[in-house]
Amino acid sequence: MFKKFGLQFRISLLILSIFFAMIIVSSLVNIILVNNANRAKSLSYLKKSVEAESYRGQNILKIELNYLNELASSLEDLYNIGIRDRNTYLNVVSNCVKKDEASIIAMGFLFNKDLIDNDADYTNNEFYRDIKGQFGVYLSKNNGNVIQQKFAASELNADYFVNAKTTLKPYITPLYSYNIAGNNIDIYTWSVPIFDNSGKNIGVVVADVTPQSLGKSIEKIKPYAESKVILFDTAGNLVYNAGRSDGIGKNGYEVYEWYKTLGIIEKVHSGESLNFEHFTTVFNEVGTYVVSPINMLDGYNWGIEILTPSRVIQAETRYIRNTMILILVFILIVSLIITPIIIKKKVSNIIILLAKDIVAMSTGDLTIEIPKGFEKRTDEWGDIARGWGKAMSNFNNVINTVKHSAEQVSTAANEVLIGNNDLSQRTETQASSLEETAASMNEMASAIKESAESVAQSTSMVSDAKESLNKAGTIIEDSVNKMNDVYESSSKIMDITKLIEGIAFQTNILALNASVEAARAGDQGRGFAVVASEVRNLAQNTQESVKSITSLITDSNDKIKLAANSVQESQSIFNEILEKMDRASSIMDRINIAAQEQEKGIDQVNIAISNMDASVQKNAALVSEATSASESLLSEANDLLKAISYFNLKD
């Protein structure tokens, strides 16, 4: 939407918006701070006022106590000087009641038993009958007259008598209802103990006070004209309530629920002050409450509440706030009028002049000069104009330089294009030659590979033959060993046959000797001679058999020896063959290794040729790309020259 308006309006709006925002924020902060400070100050003033008024209220409320202390002192003096006449005491109290102390509506006293005359003498007296003749007097005012009332027996145990006698200190009761001269009236009672010269308690004096009698005095206790005061006793009973006349005598918790919520009575009883804001039906608006204790006696705090409309406390704050708002509105109106005029004179008119030069430059005119008068300005606009002039001059020089460079680039690109075309032709010829060489090398590599495979097969066959010869040599060697074992066994058999032959020879001799001995024996040795003859025959047969076996074994040994020699000669021949096969295998291994290396060398040469072919192909592609780039560069240089021709340059 703001694009429809001029720069002057938009700049004015931006500046004023920021300015207004700053002023509004600062004003709000000031108003809040002033409001808080003034509110705190007012609240502090109110609290101090309430504390001061509390002290003032304490003095007002204790006037009756002071008055009662004077009465107690008078009665003590009468007692201590030995006066025991009841009428004298009665007259003194009656005179005190007649003094018309407005807040006190009745006074009385109660002496301990048998201290003033003999109590038994008054048991039939209408004023002392109920308390068995004990001297107790209660005098009240009624239309200016003093009326004597009797004490009921139950009153002897009332808190205003018991507490004063027990603690031997003054005591104040909470608000309660009491029948005075035939009327039930809300009162509270002061009681003071009285003593003889030895300090012994001899009785109690009391004074009854009505809350209504405190109205004029309490009403003066307020810091603002619209403030309302509430006074409550130690039990929380309302003694005075400027907000609600029907609440007197009722407990604050019954009249105001928020009293119970905040624990007002307990806090005041403990001596604590508090303040807060809350909507109140008294003013039908938010009010500020300040509650403070009033120390009536040690341990007995009454409470005073002062309610003031918050608007009254914050009146000064509202005045300051309204004044600041009026000043702010005045500043805004003046700014709305002056700011656009200043911006038009100091900004808009100058921008219009500079805009004309910018529009001229956009049409390609680089011959424009600084607007007249700007070169003498010493402010930022002068700096902008001079900077603009220098920028246009530098821009003109740059365009001229670019034009000259573009012309040189065009010429160089044309020359590079011609050279790339010639290089492309030579690269294609070289690529064709490399392809033919690669084909020949592939054929050579194939032939060498076949030769290498044949050599590998021959090597494998020689290795197989060598293994067979090794196996045969092993068998021959085993045969030689076995022949040697057989020869050794034959030799051992021959030794055994010789032993047997020797045994047979010995046996034959023994048999011969036996026969000789048998012949000598005659008939008795005939049987033994026969046996000896058989043994001799057997020995001879054995000897002949052994000779035949020995002859056979000797012949076998000769043949085995010949066979062993033949086997050993075969082993020697096989060993020679193995040595020759080893040399043949070694030669074939070297041939195989040489063939494999030759095959690898051919493969490497083939790979190198393939790489050269690929490089040549890449070179051809690069040459083609360089040619295309040269053509593109030439075209771009021509386009740049056409674009530069758009500008109107200085000489």
TrEMBL record:
GO cellular component terms listed in the entry, alphabetical order: membrane
Residue span(s) of domain Methyl-accepting transducer: 405-634
One GO BP: signal transduction
Keywords: Chemotaxis, Membrane, Transducer, Transmembrane, Transmembrane helix
Domain of life: Bacteria
Pfam entry (one): MCP-like_PDC_1
Transmembrane segments: 12-34, 324-343
Key word Transmembrane helix present: yes
Cell compartments where the protein resides: Membrane
PANTHER family with a match to the protein in the record: METHYL-ACCEPTING CHEMOTAXIS PROTEIN 3, PROTEIN ICFG
Protein family: Belongs to the methyl-accepting chemotaxis (MCP) protein family.
Name of the molecule in the record: Methyl-accepting chemotaxis protein
Organism: Brachyspira suanatina
